[in-house]
Amino acid sequence: MDQALNILVARLLAHRFISRRDPLARRALIDEAFRESLEHRLHECGMQLLENPYAEYIAIGLKPEMEDWVFGEGENWLSNNMGLPRDAIALLVVLWALIILPKRERQIARAASAGDTQSDMFGEQKPIAHGEEIALGVPEDAIYADFGKKLGGKARFSMNLGQLAKLGFVIRRNKMIHEGPLLDLMIDYAKLAPRIIEGALGEVLKLSGTRIAVEADEDALDTDAELEV
């Protein structure tokens, strides 16, 4: 077990995320003893396993009690350890709210209607797909039209979006922004979702989300037309 555990921890540290279909990741999800050993090893380093049954990947992050020691330096408080500026963090939250939040709400609704439960942490070898739920992408142009000027203008928007893609939060493809491996893991749904849904950002996203959805449908129709030709 020690060698397998060492390999898994090393890979998580080096790659930051691993598909839960990977044999070692799958073992961590279904083998309770292996999972406990992994969590103990990470705990000794001030880290914790990031995993939820709806996500396609597993990752590691700081334990809450380590945040002050890592992010708090004198009077300065680092928002993250990835070098992201404040406007990039704001863009990340907006993208999470537009891509992950609606997907998660659909997944939870499907799970409830099917009578599924998340109580068996080790019983799931793969994420709860429930009809192969896929997070819909959002058009880059629509995101910029709604939030770009508030997030530093076109140059900053493009630079920050590129950095988020490089870090694995999003995937850019054909002027569309799609969910990346870390987008569903690095933000705590239980903490952030109520703030967005019940807060002012929820109203902003509700309006812009409708517009983005319409533009995405139009893009899909255009793509279909091109393919038919």
- Taking the alpha carbons of the first and last residues, their distance comes to 56 Å
What proportion strand? 5-15%
Q: How do the strands of the widest beta sheet line up side by side?
A: 1-3-2
> Unreliable segments (pLDDT under 50, ≥5 consecutive)?
118-123, 216-229
Biggest sheet features? 3 strands, antiparallel
Number of helices: 9
Radius of gyration: 19 Å
**Structural class designation:** mainly alpha
Helix content range: 55-70%
What letter string, H or E per element, gives the SSE order? HEHHEEHEEHEHHEEHH
- Describe the global form: globular
What does this protein structure show overall?
57% of the residues lie in helices and 12% in strands. It is built from nine helices and eight strands. It has a three-stranded antiparallel sheet with strand order 1-3-2. Mean pLDDT is 78; it is low at 118-123 and 216-229.
What descriptive keywords fit this protein?
single chain, 229 residues, mainly alpha, three-stranded antiparallel β-sheet, 8 strands, 12% strand, disordered C terminus, DUF4194 domain-containing protein
